[in-house]
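Example record

The entry below shows one chain as it appears in the dataset: sequence first, then structure tokens.
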Amino acid sequence: MLHLFTPHLCVTDVTSIPLQELSRRGIRGLLLDLDNTLLERKAQGFDSAVTEWVATVKSQGFGLCLVTNAPPDRAEPMAARLGVPGVPRSNKPLTGGLRKGLELLGLRPDQAAMVGDQLFTDVWAGNRLGMYTILVRPISRQESILTRVKRPLERWLLMRMRDTVPGLAEALAAEGGTGLSSAEGGKITGHGSHERS
């Protein structure tokens, strides 16, 4: 059961994703969560580092699609600013939104990675589809009430999987075992993977 919530990779932020390694794995596209993955919740613009990263990813031939639980009036303008398709109200951890994103990119699940900051939405949904999953450090502590309620259980699971996911043990130790609460504090690195049964 734990494997459903275990990411293949943990990174500090999206700009730390090792694109060459993904390419070697046959991954040709990324499904991207929006809030606290690409920008702070309720923020109206992207940091220049993110927009530059998106341009780099596109230039290397990867497809990108926003797959977010945010409503259309937030998700669609943000997707347009990045010049990528978007799937609003994706209802993660249900997999329908991810399937739609894959369809928009013309890819199979094994050809794409799901990138997000939450185990119980992004990672769980991606793993259930057989995708490569990447856990990104939350950008900010400003989160919805529902997300804040889930974070303690998420931190407990992260402690359980710290010896399985490369770089996670060091990140937890740097934060005194409190988990991936925000981008402030310890750093997650590493680009290995684990095998699932």
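Notes for this example: The longest helix spans residues 145-160. The chain has a mean pLDDT of 84.
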